[in-house]
């Protein structure tokens, strides 16, 4: 399965977009919500790299 995520951080954009079109706008999130999002993102990255057998 291919995973695709585009994270844009700049003056005009501060968001993340998944391949299926789901958009996470960090400007509208609270700090607590951004921390939860980042935690879930890192957990998914760790899971993918563990499955590949690389670090």
Q: Helix/strand/pairing class, anyone?
A: alpha+beta
Strand order of the largest sheet: 1-2-3
* Number of DSSP E strands: 3
Whole-number average pLDDT? 90
Radius of gyration from the alpha-carbon trace, in angstroms: 13 Å
First-last Cα distance:
19 Å
Low-confidence stretches: none
- SSE series: EEEH
How much helix, percentage-wise, in residues?
40-55%
SS strand fraction:
15-25%
- Count of individual helical segments: 1
Shape: globular
Give a quick account of the main beta sheet: strands, pairing sense, barrel closure: 3 strands, antiparallel
Primary descriptors:
alpha+beta, single chain, three-stranded antiparallel sheet, globular, 55 residues, 40% helix
């Amino acid at each position: 399965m291919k995973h695709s995520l585009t994270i844009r951080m700049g003056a005009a954009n501060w968001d993340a977009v998944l391949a299926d079109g789901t958009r996470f706008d960090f400007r509208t999130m609270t700090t607590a919500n951004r921390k939860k999002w980042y935690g879930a993102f890192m957990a998914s990255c760790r899971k993918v790299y563990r499955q590949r057998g690389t670090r």
